[in-house]
Amino acid sequence: MVYLDNAATTFPKPREVIKETESAMRELCGNPGRGSHRAAAAAAERVYRCRETAGSFFGAPPENVVLTCNATAALNIAIKGYARDGGRILISDMEHNSVLRPAARAAEERGAELLNYETFPGDDGRTVEGIRKLIKPGSTVVVASHMSNICGRILPIAEIGELCRDSDCVFVVDGSQSAGRLKIDVSGMKIDALCVPGHKGLYGPQGTGLLVLGNVGHGLPRTLTEGGSGLNSIDITMPDDPPERYEAGTLNSPGAAGLSAGIEWVGRVGIDRISEHEDRLCRMFRESIAEIPGVTVYSDEGGPVALFGVAGKSPAGIGAFLDGRGICVRSGLHCAPLAHKTLGTAPGGAVRASFGFFNTASDVKKAVDAVRRVAAL
Which residues in the chain land under pLDDT 50? Predict the structure, then answer.
């Protein structure tokens, strides 16, 4: 099998991640924060280690690291929790449904305006200026996908963060595709809420994610769920402070252990080395299939994602053909119809091949050969 769907979830996982997750399931039978006995304490220690590791990686104190089940859960907390009554929510024209849908619901519930700002590849200043024109100071939440999941487009996060801080706006970043591939500093980039999955570029288990809170000058987002937190059980409200304020119910301590190992592995290998390897393979793939008659490559913006189509073939048909030859790609709209509309590939979508650190040049060759075969049909 040639696995080229790393934008959905990275595979395989490093040995260290598998070992740590298995070890936690074998040894950590306690419920973290729900007891003082040794089993609960051991689980709590692994969870705190994950907070420390993630906090160090993203430039935030461990108490600002909230464990979630995925990036979508983190985005729901941040977007819905920070939306202001009668304010504005600004999202880019490249956003995934994990941003678009909670933003639409938050706007509806809070009586806020939901507006799209345009992104301009190669012209960051124009992108930032477009956001500036839409901002209502003091009542706006700006959401930006750091890297597109279909074309690798990268938004100028640091510049947008500076604008938001100067305009007294909340800045929420979707790091689903960038975390572990691009350097992110919550403090330096002036990010109020960074939302990331554990199972993609951080090479952790599925079912893990993080909400990393930065500046608390805007106050904390409202809670999305309530329940047991292990603290102040007599109170009918959630704790006032993070992370427990947003962690109702039992935490995924084996997942946290595996995620911590994944972040540590990324740190040892190095973000630059990972990005260079993935980008090189993706570039080889894009350049090779672009020479095949009938193949259209829809974007060449860098990153480890190649979006393409074949004349006369549906994306679903291409995907099925490649799968039959052991090539795992994803076809369709990739849960990002807004981004596909921006690129001009809506409504049918396209085929996406996305590369990870464990892919090889041999994988590229096999995938290119398979694309050549489907184009010749």
Answer: none
CA atoms within 13 A on the CB side of 353: 33
Instruction: Quote the domain boundaries for residue 309.
Output: 2-10+270-376
The radius of gyration of the chain's CA atoms, rounded to the nearest angstrom, is: 21
- For the stretch 352-374, pLDDT in tens is 999 999 999 999 999 999 999 99
| Packing angle, helices 253-269 and 15-27, rounded to 10 | 160
One domain for residues 185 and 307: no
Residue 217 is predicted with a pLDDT of: 65
Q: How far apart are CA 26 and CA 111, in angstroms?
A: 49
**pTM: predicted TM-score of the whole model, two decimal places:** 0.95
Do 322 and 371 meet the contact criterion of CB atoms below 8 Å apart? yes
Cis peptide before 347 (omega within 30 of 0): yes
Residues 234 and 296 in one domain: no
Average pLDDT of the chain is 94
Q: What angle do CA 39, 210, 184 make, to 5 degrees?
A: 130
* Contact between residue 73 and residue 209 where contact means Cβ atoms under 8 Å apart: yes
Q: What share of the chain is helix, strand, coil (3-state, %, to 5)?
A: 40, 15, 40
Q: With 0-12 CB in 10 A as exposed, 13-18 as middle and 19+ as buried, what is 101? A: middle
- Here the tokens at position 252 are 């995924």
pLDDT in tens, 142-159: 999 999 999 999 999 999
CATH number for 116: 3.40.640.10
